[in-house]
Specification:
Chains A, B: It catalyses: 4-amino-4-deoxychorismate = 4-aminobenzoate + pyruvate + H(+). The structure is a homodimer of 275-residue chains. With 275 residues, the first copy, chain A, is of the alpha+beta class. The first copy, chain A, has helices at 3-6, 25-29, 47-60, 68-78, 123-126, 153-159, 208-216, 231-235, 265-274, and strands spanning 9-12, 32-40, 43-44, 85-92, 109-115, 129-138, 167-174, 179-182, 186-191, 194-198, 223-227, 239-244, 248-255, 258-259. The first copy, chain A, has 2 domains: 3-115, D-amino Acid Aminotransferase, Chain A, domain 1; 123-274, D-amino Acid Aminotransferase, subunit A, domain 2 (D-amino Acid Aminotransferase, Chain A, domain 2, Alpha-Beta Barrel), CATH 3.20.10. In chain A, the strands form 2 sheets. In chain A, strands 6, 7, 8, 9, 10, 11, 12, 13 and 14 form a 9-stranded mixed β-sheet that branches. Chain A starts with a helix and ends with a helix. At the A-B interface, helix 2, strand 4, strand 5 and helix 6 of A face helix 2, strand 4, strand 5 and helix 6 of B.
Chain lengths: 275, 275
């Protein structure tokens, strides 16, 4: 275990327990959801949106979502210093005996984990990033699409496709060849004054950074379309942006042998997302 | 928590630890595999095949599989009485900091859980079982197909489609409409002297009971074909069997409005699988 894992701090249902039950269905079946968010000076960033998405994802799986107050209490207890940090919130369906079925009165477990903000290379902001084009294709499952659930083996396998530290993320297509997302970020392609972000009705994770850009793009005089997009179309974009709650937004300047000149939209989006 | 969860006994890496690390990637991403098997008078049933499948599944995900000896020691320690019971073995990739990537030297975690043999209704053996036809369709992901991994939300959602205790399992088709499996069992259809079991190259879990039937069907003067099968074709079968390591084999006598007369193959297969 490395230093970062040793220093992790967490609460399970508000308690500094020694560990999670091996009967938790989060372990058995990935039966739960999660959020990853910035905590700035003790306050969870874009909290309303983060909690709304957590509640929606719980509802999609018929998991009982902890109240906003209870989660805010956990965060207050855990992030008791002024340093910016990362909160990961996991909500599992709870503990049950072996088997896919579960009792109607099952009680969800909540886990809040504190960790350091990743040390992203400064060059990602100043010069843009390179993406790997993943060989793994995302399977289509409309019943789970968009939800940030704990079944993330596709992301794990896709992320294992490259070791080069100069690669910031991997672009994922679905089994039909449509562009969906990256392993840890969502994707926008700009064509003139239009931003296109892939539809996530069949697979993929609808992140909060993506939601914020969709909501606020008009402030930058951009319109947003959510629609399916082929790789060919993406490669013709004027520029391409990846985004998530921790990195904000980075421009992609290198993908699949093609290069784009560095522009300024990524900095404007980071301002929108991180400040 | 009900009585069964209270009484669970388990070992984490051979120790009676109080719980699992919240940084275990089995929880974070379902990044692991599992087996469920009978332990008869302290001895794991069909152990060679179970261990072989565990090792193959670990290899499919590039997870370091615990040695056979280490797992047998865990089982010996946990199953120290002569009663038949169920062992669930979970192997996760191990613990890591937040993020889909993992260090090359990550150390797998093994969890062995003891539980009681399920109290299946006797009528399932004497009269056969009814299946629910699931609305959820399995997504196609050849990189994970066949592997008994911890990303099982499809099974959880499918199992939640019915509450009727007279339904023994739910039949799952894939998004192309092919018959694949049930939520907790594999499927065989008999046409004369041919047994057909669905190909699991695109999705589904290849269980050990299925492997044993494929291997030993000739003893019952049956040949086995592994191929894709539509629901229409399945409905025309002379009989239909579901199987897993705990229940052995049950004949399906009721599916989607169609009924089949009870026959004797299920009893022969149970003899092969459970004794």
């Amino acid at each position: 275990m490395n230093q970062e894992t040793k220093n992790a701090q967490y609460l399970i249902n508000g308690q500094t327990s020694s560990g999670l039950s091996v009967l938790d269905r989060g372990l058995s079946y990935g039966d739960g959801v999660f959020r990853t968010l910035l905590v700035k000076a003790g306050l969870p960033h874009h909290w309303s949106l983060q909690y709304q998405k957590l509640a929606e994802d719980c509802q999609a799986l018929n998991i009982s979502c902890p109240s906003e107050d209870v989660l805010l209490q956990d965060i207050k207890a855990l992030f008791d210093d002024p340093l910016d940090a990362v909160a990961k919130i996991i909500v599992t369906r709870g503990e049950s005996a072996r088997g896919y079925g579960y009792p109607a009165d099952i009680s969800a477990n909540r886990i809040v984990i504190k960790s350091q903000i990743p040390a992203y290379p400064a060059i990602n902001q100043t010069h843009g990033v390179s993406l790997h084009l993943c060989q793994l294709k995302l399977g289509l499952q409309p019943k789970l699409a968009g939800v940030k659930h704990l079944n993330r083996l596709e992301n794990v396998l896709a992320r294992a496709e490259w070791n080069d530290v100069k690669i910031a993320d991997g672009l994922l297509l679905d089994t039909d060849g449509n562009v969906i997302e990256c392993t840890m970020s969502n994707v926008f392609a700009r064509f003139g004054k239009d931003l296109i972000t892939p539809s996530l009705d069949e697979c993929g994770v609808a992140g909060t950074a993506r939601a914020l850009i969709i909501k606020n793009a008009a402030q930058l005089n951009l319109s947003v379309k959510v629609e399916s997009m082929s790789l060919d179309k993406l490669m013709q974009a004027d520029e391409m942006i990846i985004c998530n709650s921790l990195l904000g937004a980075w421009q992609v300047v290198n993908l699949n042998g093609q290069q784009w000149a560095k522009q300024k939209l990524d900095a404007q989006l980071r301002e929108m997302l991180l400040n």
